[in-house]
Amino acid sequence: MIYSFKGMIPVIHESAFVHPLATVTGDVIIGANVYIGPGAAIRGDFGTIIIEDGCNVQENCTIHMFPGVTVLLKENAHIGHGAIIHGAEIGKNCLVGMNAVLMDDVILGDECIVGALSFIKAKNKYHLEV
């Protein structure tokens, strides 16, 4: 279901797939070739959510934030089943494992992997070292 919130209507690219049992609310931008699975809650009610091209947000994920924050999933980020992204930035080609939780102001650099059931506390920055 797609819902407006305080006059903000989600913008979803025509090539994106949003499952009918997912909920997308408010200030949300979903790019090309994005997959949003059933039970996902994408809540742009307090801030902005940008999901760039090629991202995959699987079943029962929650994406949300504190007021005034922007959540960014960069190109080809993959968010595993049941994961929670709360006020974080996810880099390009990242994988967030099933039921992982990333809290506010976390910055996950490009090509990082967060294991299933992990918890990353607020205000941490992780980058892949080459």
Q: What labels would you give this structure?
A:
130 residues, UDP N-Acetylglucosamine Acyltransferase, domain 1, twelve-stranded parallel β-sheet, mainly beta, 0% helix
Task: Please characterize this protein's 3D structure.
- This protein has strands at 2-3, 11-12, 17-18, 23-30, 35-36, 41-51, 56-57, 62-64, 70-73, 78-79, 84-86, 89-90, 95-96, 101-102, 107-108, 113-114, 119-120, 125-126.
- The protein is mainly β and 130 residues long.
- It has a single domain (2-126), classed as UDP N-Acetylglucosamine Acyltransferase, domain 1.
- Strands 1, 2, 4, 6, 8, 9, 11, 12, 14, 15, 17 and 18 form a 12-stranded parallel β-sheet that branches.
TL;DR?
With 130 residues, the protein is mainly beta. The protein is built from no helices and 18 strands. It has a single domain (2-126), classed as UDP N-Acetylglucosamine Acyltransferase, domain 1 (3 Solenoid), CATH 2.160.10.10.
Secondary structure elements and their pairing?
Layout: E1 2-3, E2 11-12, E3 17-18, E4 23-30, E5 35-36, E6 41-51, E7 56-57, E8 62-64, E9 70-73, E10 78-79, E11 84-86, E12 89-90, E13 95-96, E14 101-102, E15 107-108, E16 113-114, E17 119-120, E18 125-126
Q: What is the number of E strands? A: 18
The CATH class assignment is Mainly Beta
Count of helix runs: 0
Overall pLDDT: 96
What's the structural domain tally? 1
The coarse overall form would be globular
